[in-house]
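ok here's the first one, seq then struct tokens
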Amino acid sequence: MYKAYLDNNIIVGIEDGDYSVEQFLNKNDYSYYFSQVHLEELLEAESNPKVSQEGRLNLIAKICGRNHILTGDDNKPEFFDKEPIEMYRIVAPLRQFLNPAVAVNQGNLLAKKVRQLFGFEAKQFNNESPEKVLSIIDAKMKEKLNLNIVSYLKETKAYNNSTIYHTLLQLINMANYWGDKDTSHSNVARLYDAEHAYFAQLCDVFVTNDKKLRMKIRAIYSFLDVKTKVIPVDDFLCD
């Protein structure tokens, strides 16, 4: 049985009627997994009248059952047997302490300076294969800043938790590889993206309709030797 991790935009697409639950459940050789990030994004949308908290939890439960991925005692992602509503009741009271919106939006000026210093032209850089991206960034950081951050991460495996995903995704975005416009929303979304990629590493496929995110996560997975495939939903459903 293969394991699949659906990005939150796929869950929203099912709610919007772009896909049906049956299209996913009919892939009998796959089981689906959710993480606390799905629940954190749901909590962020609690003021949106178009989003039903109960409806979303029921949808996640219908697709994933009790297949949950959570950071374990050794600070690495592990599989757990937990219902979405059970984890929601744990995550919800912690929202005020975990809310990423209060911890971002401080790095936009730095990102602009780094992009100018690196001198990457977005359209040209976007043509590079994901497998080469972090090596290129590493070489540019050595040339311009005399820093060996990327090499250090690679050689020492300095972080064995989600921190390395946040660090690498931020570096990739600063270098403007399939970059997002820096806004309060994109900065928060980037935190969620890194967490989704971190948990999805335990699965065979990470399904997302965000092309920019696919390219960035492919670069990170290649760098970390993670074998998880990152694919769009149409490719997944037609496979």
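and now the second one, same deal
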Amino acid sequence: METRMEIPTQTKPLSIAAPLVSVRTEVRIERILCPVDFSPFSGRAYDYAQSIAGQYRATLVVQHVVDLGQHPSADFSVSATVYEDFRAKLIADAQNDLQEFVKKYGGDSPERIVQEGMAAEAILSLSQERSISLIVMGTHGRRGFDLLMLGSVTQDVLRNASCPVLVVCHTAPV
């Protein structure tokens, strides 16, 4: 008598790992914020912001923040009226400077906003209020002691922004 040994067949199909397929979702950039301080560094960032806004047909918002803390003389005002006049002049000058900045660097006419406050806080606040999709900003490239003493607006924005931040370094090609 012949005995046959049966090899058990698997009743369940083998589980084969699905191929790794990345599903690309379309990046939607609708509103771009470009904070500027009128330096050549922010001019480079503005060039990038304009280019990206054109590619995505996004709204570009250019912001300048007047930080009274950067003007120690504001603390030595003789009266509230003198302080208010000084503050109003700083803001009016900033509005004119922002208009000239946009004219100098060309491109489509973006929305221009001048605010008073601390730069990083104002940038983050505006990006939340306007549902900004992308922040494009320049950096001075400070290191070491200068960074420690002066702080970095860019660094604060990078750490706390709720949207992507493109940092254009001081050596970026234009």
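notes on #2: The chain has one domain: 31-168. Residues 31-168 form a domain with the Rossmann fold fold (CATH 3.40.50.620).
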